[in-house]
Amino acid sequence: MSAVAVKYPELKAMDVEVLSMSVDSRFSHKIWQEEELSKMVEGGVPFPMLTDPGGSVGEVYGVYDEASGTDIRGRFIIDPEGTIRAMEVLTSEVGRNVSELVRQVKAFQHVVATGEVTPSGWQPGKATLSPSPDLVGKVWTIWKPEQAFD
Questions:
Q1: Count of structural domains within the chain
Q2: Hey, which end of the chain has fewer CB within 10 Å, N or C?
Q3: Structural domain span for residue 137
Q4: Mind listing the pLDDT tens digit of every residue in the chain (150 residues)?
């Protein structure tokens, strides 16, 4: 959450609404914000920290672990119509990459604005693809796999 908090101004500038949620109580969130997060990010986490007692929301999104009564790490990009466009679920040992979240949001926004599609590793200003029957079997003429790492 602290890494997302650092990128929060950039996300807000892209009209992204950020929410966090866990099965922890609002009292735990308050202590966590005051004792941990505010020491990692000036002012703490600037977006809502929601509580999901019993894990019913986490269960819907497939991140609730009933055996431990906790949510595992999940990140969801949900468009304005309420459709999940991307999701990433990781166990607690590995952190998520917030720069990848920002890249994916930019890619989805580009797709919606232009109708083009973005290949692997796409960054703003890089080559995109225009879906058509003429492109089938010829993506290689526009995009090379090594471009995913530029």
A1: 2
A2: C
A3: 115-149
A4: 899 999 999 999 999 999 999 999 999 988 888 888 888 888 889 999 999 999 999 999 999 999 999 999 999 999 999 999 999 999 889 989 999 999 999 999 999 999 999 999 999 999 899 888 988 898 888 888 888 887
Residues 60 and 30 both lie in one domain: yes
Same domain, 82 and 122: no
- pTM of the shown model: 0.88
* 66 within a domain of the structure (yes/no): yes
Question: CA 16, CA 122: separation in Å to the nearest integer?
Answer: 19
Going by C-alpha positions, the residue among 150, 109, 145, 105 that lies closest to residue 126 is 150
d(CA 74, CA 61): 8
Residues 82 and 142 in one domain: no
Q: What is the DSSP letter of 139?
A: G
User: Is 51 buried (19+), middle (13-18) or exposed (0-12) by CB count in 10 A?
Assistant: middle
**Domain check: are 8 and 69 in the same one?**
yes
Q: Which residues fall within 8 angstroms of residue 123, CB to CB, at 6 or more apart?
A: 103, 106, 150
Q: Which two tokens stand for residue 134?
A: 């003429």
Question: Is 43 part of a structural domain of the chain?
Answer: yes
